[in-house]
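step: validate -> pass
step: tokenize input -> pass
step: predict -> running
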Amino acid sequence: MGGGDDIAQLGATAMVAGPGAAAALSAPLSSAMPGEGLAAVPAYSGTLRLPSSVFLVAKRGFDVSVALLGLGVFGLVLPLLALIIKLDSPGPVFFAQERVGINRRRTRAAHDGPDRRKVLQPGRPFRVIKLRSMGVQAEAGGPQWATKNDVRVTRVGKFLRKTRLDEVPQFLNVLRGEMSIIGPRPERLVFVRQLEKEIPFYRDRLLMLPGITGLAQVINGYDDGIESVRRKIELDRQYIHSAGFIQEFKILLATVSVVLKGEGAR
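step: predict -> pass
step: emit ->
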């Protein structure tokens, strides 16, 4: 379930520079700021160990409890948020987009013969739910990564992203069992197809439920290019291998710091 040695190894292998929010993870990470001043994260060379069933059951119980509490509080402010979103720009209050979730076929991989039907989806597809923070024509030219000071983000959207309020509706995805509170960030199929060709072990991040927050999210921030994705993959693999209660707690503390300081928002 991930002990202190795993946390120490995780911190030692994530080499970062500059002040910021991931200090709560461990001493070696005390200088991390999401998305800024990041050096390369060395490849995790060990055998990827999956979490125990006891940890996963406890993690699910925590997810459901937090999601119910979060949605209860969110429901009190939703009418006001919905009003300012509608007044700020035309379009719906909520934004839904298909993402790639956990790969539940992983345990069957060893039994797949050479003639087995090609799997079209690398993981279970689901529709992630957020508060809309961009204009309705944000991707008129096709899928693209968010960038720093992205002009597609609305005025209210900047506030929603800085406070991470746009992420709160994902608690519904958590209750449905499509996401966890902590885990690798869910990605779109078009990017998964592109990146798995360029980055070794990319699909390893699909071995656990995707999360609203996670190790890569609090350290690496938003993706802005292939190198930041490489760092994210290594951090995701380290998270999965070292998954345990201590690491979960430290990631939660780092997440609170990121939200309070508004770091890494775009």
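step: describe -> The chain has a mean pLDDT of 79.
step: cleanup -> pass
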